[in-house]
Every structure is written in C-alpha cells, then in structure tokens.
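Notebook p. 47: complex prediction with inosinic acid.
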Amino acid sequence: MIVATRSKGKIREIREALKGLGLRIYALSDFLDVLEIEEDGKSFTENALKKARFYSRYFGKLTLADDSGLEVDSLKGLPGIYSARYAGEGASSQENNQKLLREMQGVPLSKRGGGFKCIIAVVSPDGREAIAEGSCKGRIGFREKGKKGFGYDPLFILPKYRKTMAELSLKEKNKISHRGKALKKIRKIIKAFEG
Ligand code: IMP
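Predicted complex, structure tokens below:
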C-alpha cells in the first residue's frame, strides 16, 4: 500500500496503527522522482481524495492519503487547511507554532479552545473509494511543551491528561488523536478492500 505523504510524523503514526494487517506500507519518500500534486482543495476531504485518487492511479496500488490540520476557535477555524504552510510555503513546524502563538497573543486560557481534524481517504486502483474522519479537542498552550509527535503537538494541550500531545508516546497519541480515530475506522475498510 502507498501512503501519499512525505511527513515522517504521519507515516510513523499510520504504520503503527495499521500494524498486523500484513501490508507493506510505502511512503512517497521511499521513491525517487515522484510527481507532486498541488493541495488546492477547499477542504480536508477534497485534498485527501485528490491525493489518494492521483497516487492510486500513478502507482497502480491501494493508496491512503491523510489531510489534517488544527482549527482554532478564536481564529475562526484557522490555520485549518493551511496548517502546514501557516507561516508561509515551506515553513517549519517551529515557525508555524511561533506564528500561532503570535496570532493568539492576549487570548486568555478560557478562549484558547481548538481541535485537530483528520480525513483519511483510501482509493484502490480499480476505483473503490472510502473516507474516514477523526477529531480531537483540546486547548492551545502559551508555550511549546514536549518533544514527541510533530507539527502543532507541543502547543496542543489535552486538559484530561494535563499534557500536550507532544508529551504522549506514539501509542498513547494514536489512542486518542484525530488521526488514530480515523485510522481505526480505515483499518476495517482496508481489510474489506483486501479481503
Ligand atoms: P497536510 O500535510 O496538508 O495534511 O498538513 C497537515 C499539517 O497539519 C501538518 O503539517 C501539521 O502542521 C498539522 N497537523 C496535522 N496533524 C497533526 C498532528 O497530529 N499533530 C500536530 N500537527 C498536525
């Protein structure tokens, strides 16, 4: 199976969640000279489907694509579909996190709610398609905390655990995260596609 991403963080979580299905999982970074496509959709769903459809045809293999991001209440849902490039095209996670902290300067804890969203699309070369979603609510912290995970994880506080997402192990994150929830559903769908 192809996972249509170059994100090391996403791949790690996807591999862990799909363990035991007997699938060989390849990422785009495992190949040389792979054609890139633009993520110009207006929603996570459009982008996930676009990536999964394109690469399932390109490789002739079952393909999974994840489109995800952070929606912050006080920023009317931003960075949303722009999460990866919030501080500009090619921005690092740290640059994106710093921009988020700047944009939220002066916002009190009670108004710092937000959530991660993830849409996963799976498309087979013979044209079968499925979509699963997952979300995870939390609060945006005042400073980065934790070294695990990726992206906005060090700023994303899970009040129930009194920890940021970047303080959770891979297994713990997959149990409660937007991506973990979507992957649990997609695991069943992949079984049906393969079976
Ligand atoms: P995509 O590759 O266009 O789907 O962009 C996803 C972006 O959303 C990532 O680059 C991160 O900035 C953010 N993001 C998505 N999922 C997570 C997560 O699990 N933790 C932290 N940041 C995430």
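Notes: Helices lie at 8-17, 44-59, 93-103, 170-176, 178-194. The chain has one domain: 2-194.
Next step: compare against the earlier run before touching the bench.
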